[in-house]
């Protein structure tokens, strides 16, 4: 039996190694998606199963479950990992998300034995494919979305495999910056190895091994204790994705959550079949979205393989939540994952309303604008993602303009965007009247308007919650739905699929106006104190 | 240890902490000093200030210099007791401070709250718009500005911020609007965002300006009250106030630089550490300031504290002025030990504070703290706790045993466990701070200070593999010493954000010259004599957001040298060379220093020739067991004295613990140089 003090030291020590990897990764990266938006993650994974041992606090939340699937896929495909090897992989169907999330996986050896895996993910700003950036809402197969990489050796016994590097760089845009991103990812794995060497030597390898097993058991007990506090029974919910970008039909995520003692079983049977457009979710992402949702509800449980043991997710075969090759998947990490989490929240809101919250905006609000900038005589592509209202909760109103459920990323400043692109923001403001009413109201969405100043631009949208806004909880009301309005040559125009659309041609003076969702309310509106209503009125919310 | 004072040239450093106000009086002419420690008076810090001067046994009329570190601005911000702030913004953009950059308080969990520093009805938009290229798209509606200012004034706003887009590049509209508003505003608390920070990024610039406006009335009132008290008592010189950048400034310019007093508390100690390290021949340090509630870590490289302009004061409240880069975790003497729902021992961040305080202080505390663990294990002297009675070790043991019950540990075992857990957490924080700057902690010496710093110093050095510890003469007075040592300092920034090759030498010179001129003017107003100006440039590869700073020299023909210096720096930092990447010149910065007369730290060394024997012995616990340990008085250790562990060195402001493996020598300045 290992003493609890050593457990604490090992838990914090392993977490700190991952945080150091995150820091090195972030500071040396080129991709603003990584260095500014923190769209990356580093962790340690089990030698045999790929299950997560530890993950940094600074990593992108959705990756916490995905990475273990990636490592498991590498383990299954690679029979002879050797010291100094590093595998490169982004295949969505082999434990991935979308193609832009490029993973590196490195076997870690101790005394000649495979001891664990070090791995990281970074979102690359481009991976080839039919549109810059990879978020095409018109793709109908994965090949249109970019370069698909099965596990290949980027480093072999410490030697960079230049032929692999050349092959990758020949198939993506702005390759020079990606060399920097590759180096940053490799550097992080190198730091992880050196720190783990030192840590195991200091603590003693058997002690760490025993502590890891015990920590997993304790996380499991903690998660089970939370689940045991949920009344036994079956809870059902439906979360709706507006459409797949190609066919204008809602996609349903049907969830049956069964609580039995200390186990929670998630069954998505009856959800919509695979779709034509890129709103399919691969299994690793679907699974990870459930784990992430539970971690959002019970954030005190440390992340390791143990905390996931009480969560049984049935593979939703035959639905759009278990995409098979060659279905397009670009939207799975950004949008569908957030709707899956919403389905989990909606079930739990029935079971343990005091621990839940109104639904968050739940969309990354991707707007892509590309074209020609005559000011600098150059082509440009702008990716803009926005926040929305969070749900009210038992202790207060929801946050306004919160980040996506699955991310921790910030938006780019207006001043930076206007400097880089030929656009002018006419408004960047709280969206009045967008919060879901309740004893604790939802946070407000964002209300922005962009005008093209010069040259030309083609706009695409990949958003969600356009048909209806984020639902409330415990009697709270629904928040405002996402709205897009284009003004093209003086004519107002709403995309037929409400939250998605591609290829809108803008001329100078044309405008894009978007209102992002407000958060769902919490508790009956009639319980909201008059003083809070007066405050909201004063503020003009 | 008090010495006789000469007739003149007396300097006093006054540092207000959460619990105590520390004072250090230096007689430069006689080479002597005095110290005093009085309780802080949070309701009006000026009371503790005056009490402290009295406790030194001097009259303000005798003083030549008074240097002051205050937490008034920090507390006003953290406790949300600042001014009612009005904001006049570009129409359509009045909500920037409330929108932030789309975030949430914690990575996991979707709850939490945020209130902007200015409530929405106090934020008004006016018609005006300037493009990113500095062209006026919509002229400033001057009547609307005046109407908005009057409306905010009449609504009861005390301070006002003008916040327009792209004002970092084209400040004309902000300047004009501020002039209009100042005409109708009843006090001087009006600022334009570019005056506070001429830096791109509207939210961060606006937030910095809002923080400035939020703390400005409180800090101005406080400093005025201290100045009045000093003047009434006959002090005829200018009071100096410490800033978060590690410099000081004249009280007369505090109003226009109010934001620089936020988080100035931890900076002063780091300044003293840097000076002590330079004098001791150890220019590369990692510092750890452990007080009652927190552990503050900072880096000093080549004798200079690492500075950051990327700090967040609280969730959603960035402040982008340069600050000594201090990283804080919730681990101090008063941090409480508990068992989590997973059955693990957790120490902090909850603190017992000074009331109820640790169990051993006998003020009603019932939950065991780090101090209690140190008391039970003999590391702290139970007879020397604050208050009139010695610590009740039976009560301490009982409290520790209650926590230990759930871990299967007795009281001693629990105390040892608490120290192990908190030492590991502090070491982790030190490691992260070093790694973020590309440093290996093993290449640095450790500089512990604060009342509790030296007690844990050897433990931390062993955790990190640090080979040398520099324990200053007065660990508990390091911040007060820092006040005495700080130079006058003012920082300026101007964003360019253009390809470095497209910027001419003449343009760079013009900006640097304008910044230097502002700095010299301010320093001259403050009475500085020896003025020194330093320029730096922030550069980055296009596409990256992480910038590096390099020195900039006026008079170059173009920016080639900046580009080359950046590429070299990048290679050192990340080990990567990236040919063909576009280098961007993001910001030009100037720091203007008014050098003050250097302080010879030798004055603090005890007189030579004394190596007093141990005062007593007591049982002290170390990881290899209990040792009957000699207890020395710091005052009895002259330069050249050597100590071998196990040993405890006690002085009024701290306790140093030497492990059985440790060896220490007293250097010429009176510092203890410890090999762990």
Structure description:
The complex is a heterodimer of chains A (541) and B (676). Chain A has eleven helices and 20 strands. Chain A is an alpha+beta fold and 541 residues long. In chain A, the strands form four sheets. Chain A has a seven-stranded antiparallel sheet with strand order 2-1-5-4-3-6-7. In chain A, a hairpin with a 2-residue loop joins strand 17 (483-488) and strand 18. In chain A, helix 3 packs antiparallel against helix 7. Chain A is globular, with a radius of gyration of 23 Å. The model of chain A has no long low-confidence stretch (mean pLDDT 93). The radius of gyration of chain B is 26 Å and the shape is globular. Chain B is 30% helix and 27% strand. The longest helix of chain B is centred in the N-terminal third of the chain and has 31 residues, at 202-232. The mean pLDDT of chain B is 92. Chain B has five domains: 10-77 and 220-261, ATPase, nucleotide binding domain (Nucleotidyltransferase, domain 5, 2-Layer Sandwich), CATH 3.30.420; 82-211, Oxidized Rhodanese, domain 1 (3-Layer(aba) Sandwich), CATH 3.40.250; 269-486, ATPase, nucleotide binding domain (Nucleotidyltransferase, domain 5, 2-Layer Sandwich), CATH 3.30.420; 489-595, Dna Ligase, domain 1 (2-Layer Sandwich); 617-675, no CATH class. In chain B, strands 3-2-1-4-11-12 form a six-stranded mixed sheet, with helices on both faces. The chains are: A alpha+beta (541), B alpha+beta (676). Chains A and B meet through helix 1, helix 5, helix 6, helix 10 and strand 14 of A and helix 3, helix 7 and helix 11 of B.
Number of domains of chain B: 5
Shape assignment of chain A: globular
Query: Which secondary-structure class do the elements of chain A indicate?
Result: alpha+beta
- Compute the CA-based radius of gyration of chain A: 23 Å
Sheet/helix structural class of chain B = alpha+beta
Q: pLDDT average of chain B, as an integer?
A: 92
Shape of chain B: globular
Question: What would you say the CATH architecture of the largest domain in chain B is?
Answer: 2-Layer Sandwich
Question: Helical element count of chain A?
Answer: 11
């Amino acid at each position: 039996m290992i003493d609890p003090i050593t457990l604490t030291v090992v838990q914090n020590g392993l977490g700190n190694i991952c945080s150091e990897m995150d820091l090195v990764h972030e500071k040396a990266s080129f991709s603003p998606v990584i260095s500014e938006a923190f769209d990356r993650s580093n962790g340690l994974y089990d030698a045999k199963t790929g299950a997560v041992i530890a993950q940094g606090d600074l990593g992108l939340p959705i990756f916490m479950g995905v990475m273990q699937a990636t490592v498991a896929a590498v383990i299954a495909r690679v029979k002879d990992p050797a010291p100094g090897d590093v595998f490169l992989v982004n295949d969505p169907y082999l434990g991935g998300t979308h193609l832009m999330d490029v993973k590196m996986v490195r076997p870690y050896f101790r005394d000649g034995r495979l001891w664990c895996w070090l791995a990281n993910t970074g979102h690359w700003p481009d991976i080839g494919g039919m549109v810059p950036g990879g978020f095409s809402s018109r793709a109908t197969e994965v090949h249109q979305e970019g370069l698909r990489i099965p596990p290949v050796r980027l480093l072999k016994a410490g030697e960079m495999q230049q032929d692999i590097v050349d092959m990758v760089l020949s198939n993506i845009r702005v390759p020079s910056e990606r060399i920097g991103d590759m180096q940053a990812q490799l550097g992080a794995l190198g730091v992880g190895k050196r720190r783990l060497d030192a840590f195991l030597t200091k603590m003693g390898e058997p002690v760490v091994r025993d502590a890891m097993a015990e920590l997993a058991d304790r996380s499991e007990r903690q998660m089970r204790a939370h689940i045991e506090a949920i009344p036994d029974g079956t809870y059902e919910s439906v979360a709706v994705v507006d459409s797949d970008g190609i066919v204008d039909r809602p996609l349903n995520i049907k969830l049956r959550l069964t609580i039995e003692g200390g186990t929670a079983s998630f069954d998505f049977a009856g959800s919509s079949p695979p779709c034509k457009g890129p709103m399919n979710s691969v299994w690793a992402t679907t699974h990870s979205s459930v784990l992430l949702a539970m971690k959002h509800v019970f954030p005190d449980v440390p992340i390791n393989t143990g905390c996931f043991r009480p969560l049984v997710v049935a593979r939703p075969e035959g639905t759009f939540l278990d995409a098979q090759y060659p279905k397009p998947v670009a939207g799975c990490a950004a949008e569908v994952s957030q709707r899956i989490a919403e389905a989990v929240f909606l079930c739990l809101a029935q079971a343990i309303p005091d621990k839940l919250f109104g639904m968050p905006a739940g969309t990354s609000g991707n707007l892509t604008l590309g074209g020609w900038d005559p000011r600098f005589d150059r082509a440009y592509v702008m990716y803009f993602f926005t926040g929305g209202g969070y749900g009210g909760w038992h202790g207060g109103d929801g946050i306004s303009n919160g980040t996506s459920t699955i991310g921790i990323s910030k938006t780019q400043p207006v001043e930076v965007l206007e400097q880089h692109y030929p656009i002018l923001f006419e408004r960047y403001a709280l969206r009045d009247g967008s919060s879901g009413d309740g004893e604790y109201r939802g946070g407000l969405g964002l209300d922005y308007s962009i005008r093209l100043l010069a040259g030309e631009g083609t706009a695409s949208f990949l958003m969600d919650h356009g048909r209806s806004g984020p639902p409330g909880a415990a009697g709270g009301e629904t928040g405002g739905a996402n709205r897009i309005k284009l003004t093209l040559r003086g004519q107002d125009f709403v995309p037929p699929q409400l939250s998605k659309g591609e290829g809108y041609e803008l001329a100078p003076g044309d405008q894009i106006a978007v209102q992002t969702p407000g958060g769902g309310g919490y508790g009956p509106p009639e319980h909201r104190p008059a003083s809070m209503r007066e405050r909201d009125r004063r503020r003009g919310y | 240890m008090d010495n006789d004072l000469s007739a003149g040239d007396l300097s006093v450093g006054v540092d207000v902490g959460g619990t105590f106000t520390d004072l250090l009086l230096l007689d430069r002419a006689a080479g002597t000093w005095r110290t005093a420690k009085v309780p802080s008076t949070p309701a009006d810090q000026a009371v503790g200030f005056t009490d402290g001067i009295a406790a030194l046994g001097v009259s303000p009329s005798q003083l030549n210099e008074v240097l002051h570190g205050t937490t008034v601005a920090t507390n006003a911000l953290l406790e949300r007791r600042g001014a009612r702030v009005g904001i006049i913004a570009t129409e359509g953009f009045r909500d920037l401070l409330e929108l932030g950059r789309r975030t949430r308080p914690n990575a996991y969990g979707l709850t939490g709250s945020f209130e902007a520093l200015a409530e929405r009805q106090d934020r008004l938009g006016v018609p005006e718009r300037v493009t990113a290229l500095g062209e006026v798209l919509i002229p400033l509606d001057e009547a609307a500005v005046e109407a908005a200012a009057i409306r905010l004034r009449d609504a009861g706003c005390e301070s006002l911020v003008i916040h327009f887009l792209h004002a970092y590049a084209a400040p004309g509209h902000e300047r004009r609007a501020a002039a209009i508003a100042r005409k109708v505003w009843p006090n001087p608390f009006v600022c334009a965002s570019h005056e506070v920070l001429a830096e791109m990024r509207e939210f961060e610039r606006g937030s910095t300006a809002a923080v400035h406006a939020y703390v400005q009335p409180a800090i101005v009132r406080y400093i005025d009250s201290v100045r009045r008290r000093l003047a009434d008592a006959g002090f005829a010189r200018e009071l100096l106030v410490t800033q978060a950048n590690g410099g000081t400034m004249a009280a007369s310019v505090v109003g226009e630089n109010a934001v620089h007093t936020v988080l100035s508390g931890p900076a002063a100690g780091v300044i003293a550490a840097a000076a002590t390290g330079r004098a001791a021949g150890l220019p590369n340090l990692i510092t750890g300031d452990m007080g009652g509630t927190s552990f503050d870590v900072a880096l000093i490289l080549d004798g200079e504290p690492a500075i950051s302009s990327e700090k967040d004061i609280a969730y959603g409240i960035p402040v982008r002025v340069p600050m000594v880069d201090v990283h804080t975790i919730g681990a101090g003497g008063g941090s409480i030990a508990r068992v989590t729902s997973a059955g693990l021992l957790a120490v902090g961040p909850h603190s017992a504070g000074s009331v109820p305080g640790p169990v051993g202080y006998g003020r009603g505390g019932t939950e065991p703290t780090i101090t209690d663990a140190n008391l039970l294990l003999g590391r702290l002297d139970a007879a020397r706790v604050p208050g009139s009675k010695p610590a009740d070790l039976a009560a301490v043991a009982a409290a520790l045993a209650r926590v230990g019950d759930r871990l299967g540990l007795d009281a001693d075992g629990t105390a040892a466990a608490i120290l192990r857990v908190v030492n590991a957490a502090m070491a982790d924080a030190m490691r992260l701070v070093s790694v973020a700057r590309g440093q290996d902690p093993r290449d640095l010496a450790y500089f512990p200070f604060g009342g509790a710093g030296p007690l844990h110093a050897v433990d931390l050095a062993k955790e990190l593999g640090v080979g040398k510890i520099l324990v200053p003469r007065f660990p508990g007075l390091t911040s007060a010493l820092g006040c005495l040592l700080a130079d006058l300092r003012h920082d300026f920034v101007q964003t360019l954000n253009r390809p470095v090759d497209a910027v001419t030498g003449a343009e760079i010179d013009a900006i640097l010259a304008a910044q230097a001129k502002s700095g010299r003017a301010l320093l001259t107003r403050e009475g500085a004599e020896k003025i020194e100006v330093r320029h730096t440039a922030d550069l980055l590869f296009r596409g990256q957001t992480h910038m590096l700073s390099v020195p900039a020299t006026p008079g170059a023909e173009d920016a080639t040298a900046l580009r080359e210096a950046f590429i070299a720096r990048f290679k050192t930092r990340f080990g990567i060379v990236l040919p063909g990447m576009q280098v961007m010149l993001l910001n030009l910065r100037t720091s203007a220093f008014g050098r003050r007369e250097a302080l010879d730290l030798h004055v603090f060394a005890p007189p030579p020739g004394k190596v007093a024997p141990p005062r007593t012995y007591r049982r002290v616990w170390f990881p290899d067991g209990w040792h009957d340990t000699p207890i020395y008085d710091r005052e009895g250790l002259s330069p050249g004295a050597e100590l071998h562990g196990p040993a405890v060195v006690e002085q009024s402001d701290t306790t140093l613990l030497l492990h059985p493996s440790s060896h220490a020598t007293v250097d010429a300045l009176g510092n203890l140089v410890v090999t762990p």
